[in-house]
Fold this sequence. Notes:
The chain is α/β, with parallel strands linked by helices. The protein contains 42 helices and 21 strands.
Amino acid sequence: xxxxxxxxxxxxxxxxxxxxxxxxxxxxxxxxxxxxxxxxxxxxxxxxxxxxxxxxxxxxxxxxxxxxxxxxxxxxxxxxxxxxxxxxxxxxxxxxxxxxxxxxxxxxxxxxxxxxxxxxxxxxxxxxxxxxxxxxxxxxxxxxxxxxxxxxxxxxxxxxxxxxxxxxxxxxxxxxxxxxxxxxxxxxxxxxxxxxxxxxxxxxxxxxxxxxxxxxxxxxxxxxxxxxxxxxxxxxxxxxxxxxxxxxxxxxxxxxxxxxxxxxxxxxxxxxxxxxxxxxxxxxxxxxxxxxxxxxxxxxxxxxxxxxxxxxxxxxxxxxxxxxxxxxxxxxxxxxxxxxxxxxxxxxxxxxxxxxxxxxxxxxxxxxxxxxxxxxxxxxxxxxxxxxxxxxxxxxxxxxxxxxxxxxxxxxxxxxxxxxxxxxxxxxxxxxxxxxxxxxxxxxxxxxxxxxxxxxxxxxxxxxxxxxxxxxxxxxxxxxxxxxxxxxxxxxxxxxxxxxxxxxxxxxxxxxxxxxxxxxxxxxxxxxxxxxxxxxxxxxxxxxxxxxxxxxxxxxxxxxxxxxxxxxxxxxxxxxxxxxxxxxxxxxxxxxxxxxxxxxxxxxxxxxxxxxxxxxxxxxxxxxxxxxxxxxxxxxxxxxxxxxxxxxxxxxxxxxxxxxxxxxxxxxxxxxxxxxxxxxxxxxxxxxxxxxxxxxxxxxxxxxxxxxxxxxxxxxxxxxxxxxxxxxxxxxxxxxxxxxxxxxxxxxxxxxxxxxxxxxxxxxxxxxxxxxxxxxxxxxxxxxxxxxxxxxxxxxxxxxxxxxxxxxxxxxxxxxxxxxxxxxxxxxxxxxxxxxxxxxxxxxxxxxxxxxxxxxxxxxxxxxxxxxxxxxxxxxxxxxxxxxxxxxxxxxxxxxxxxxxxxxxxxxxxxxxxxxxxxxxxxxxxxxxxxxxxxxxxxxxxxxxxxxxxxxxxxxxxxxxxxxxxxxxxxxxxxxxxxxxxxxxxxxxxxxxxxxxxxxxxxxxxxxxxxxxxxxxxxxxxxxxxxxxxxxxxxxxxxxxxxxxxxxxxxxxxxxxxxxxxxxxxxxxxxxxxxxxxxxxxxxxxxxxxxxxxxxxxxxxxxxxxxxxxxxxxxxxxxxxxxxxxxxxxxxxxxxxxxxxxxxxxxxxxxxxxxxxxxxxxxxxxxxxxxxxxxxxxxxxxxxxxxxxxxxxxxxxxxxxxxxxxxxxxxxxxxxxxxxx
Length: 1221
């Protein structure tokens, strides 16, 4: 149905409306909360189980070192002590490896001498205390004492908390908890000493162990000094803390080495002093000890990781604190209940301690439980049931446990950001092997009340987000998508909200995130008989804005009342053309900048420079540059991008809480119908699932697509970024790198300057993709060379970039080099794949098959140098169909070969099965996109077209710098919007691998348009204007024309802004004027560049093919024989498979890349879930605050509840509809 322009605003009596198909896409709150609570419950259970395993295995290991126990023979007790040493050293070894890795590939800042001395002293005392406590003292005690004495390491932390609260001069209501903790821990020490030294007569060794235990716990409690150092008004401690934070990697190496050396020294000295020797562990360590050590180290590391996950998911109380608090009690119950009820001997009427077996033979667990009982029965107060002694033992255990709770109760009230860094949650080291739950609790960052209030004030600072979309020749439906998305965001976060306070007085609450919308419309004017008018595309945009405005201005469509009138909108004449200003229903502002290409430079990059300098250069400098530069973000959009508010908020999280992130992008989903769109849907999905996630985890995302990316204002204003982005293309390589890949080039500038670019998989955006084969090839003809140029530029400066950018390491540079090499050798690899297809299907020789596989691409390569681009694409389309049939035959042939050989353990079978399993598993981890695997078969059939023919076409035609899509030379009539929609195909938005911007399509054919081969260079000469005066509008005819059709109020710019636009035009944005000679020079330079690149590109592929050909010709002499293996594991004695070394090397390299990407994807999926759950927990509160619509005071609603549903796209929704939430 054709959309006709409406020339008048709908009257109040005209109640019936014709509106776009709008669907309410909301994820129900109950489903979201169920997901949240399920995730938190799973994490909490895992934390509890792992903490239980860690503590139980460690205590059993200590019990096995007691001289009274039997599970480890008396002459093997040294192995138990050695196991305790391994447990103490385990976290230090992990920290050492992590710090060395970061020291080599990231930061290598050295600490000052006083910091090194302080760290060495503190770490020496802590390591000494831990080793003496666990190796010397605890093996002498019973299980109850050992379980609870570890809780007494909180003594100094409680003291520091009291001092910090006193110095803060705040209300002292929280000070009683650490004071009570100190009292309880000291009481526990007293009862502990009384029990062993007074009530029962202990041996000298036990008495010494009591003293060592108390001193050891005090030494260990020094470990968390850094958590409180900044709270004291002591410059020495503050300087050391700042220096440690600056040189964390070197400090980690020093501290871990000190811990390991001290633990080894204590262990080495204590073994001979205790009358034992090392000979018993020279050749054999009991399996019990090895098992306990392995369980303890693995469970502790996993428990620590899940604790971090629980904190980041905002499940602090239920998934972190409660499991940690209950761990000691549960371990005590697990240890005591079984030994209290199990029959340990044949005597039925004997006492508890008389019923202990003396043999060391039996089930391992029974033996350990017997040992636990023996440690209790050694004590006189248990053996003789002395009530005063048992009371001292029980009360001391209880006071230590309560002391731990009271000294860490501040964690219960800890305020956590929506997403939080681990280093901001926990201070200092990873964890302590012997004190897992105590170290995780005490390591949690301590904040006094004053700091919390200051932090809350900082969080209330508003974030300013400018949404900047670029348009050119978008259709009505495409414009409708982005405009509705903007209005939806305006409704989601009103500029201000009027509510009633406790005194029932109205007050205005400012939104935590302020939005301002900008649309930069290229070539928005046309010449008319009576002057300069807005063209039909600009008028279509005005019509869309008016229509959407009438939809969103109605608060409740179900209530029949007078239609509210639209606010008076402004129309302004500007030095660059004109501007339309709208005040949206919820108070945010939308500006439409109509560009006249005769007044200001057109094309997308120059539109971006317009809004960068307008917003970051003039607006911020004039208003609040010094205050809000870091809190100002720019969301780059294309003219057809469809997104939900949640997608924007998730990107804001990344920039708000990670100051080194300069840009963040979401997951881009192509829309449309037809085989080309289906192919691109799977291509985009795989690119996001594997490549984008791997880039994010291993280093940095190389390209943040211009169709939906959030940029930090201070990053864009950094040196060598925004200024260099204004560079005019003067060389052939500039046209390829700058103008055809501006989003990737901007990200390259950010990375080279040290900023990080990230990918958020939970942030979804939708945009149109090419639906025709020709459009697709022309789009990728631009993206391919620009991607290669920017990647080579980044790799060329890899050494300097890795020094500036801590997220880009030398291994990541190597990863990108391998990926680039795989991309360059793609055509030759596809030829080898086709040759293999010939061998499978036609049973021909390998060399003959290789020759036949190379001939068609070689012929196509020659034709591309001779024929016009349209003819090249036609030939490629025909060859793509032929190759698709060949690939289908290949699949069936591989399956038949597996059946014929009675095994799938062949190189081709393993490769095919491995790829299918990997993609299915990856898709299963993205359940909302799992249906896209259906298009995987089409993607496989089109591999030769996408990686062979397209590569040839892109390289040979890289000198053709025309845009290739949306090039509708004629001017469509305003009344024929439907015809425009029909004939202007929906062009793509962003590349799968680069995920480049689709709104690049707002550019016209550049002047130096060149073609290939024998085609003549065609130069587009700027049209002469029909205006009466050069460089300015002859009149305001366009304003009067729009005022007649729409309700606009004429306004003017301030003198300052008018002067700014004139200065900006003069310096950066004057229309390009190039002579015929300059255009010819650029065209020749582009052709020479094409020839050089094509020679290097295809020469590398030829070398790969020639090497393979000769290796196959040599045959069995150098081929690698692989025995034939049947599914049951048996080997064939006569049959083998052969692989040449190059093929094997390529397969292994490709498999290694896929494995790295797969595990990076797993890691990224976990943290995406964490971010999503945290977003759900915090955003519901903000929705209650900002998203409640204002209700007309004349209408009373009963049981009015705020709508706190979250807004997410449903990918299964038909893309023909437009979403309104």
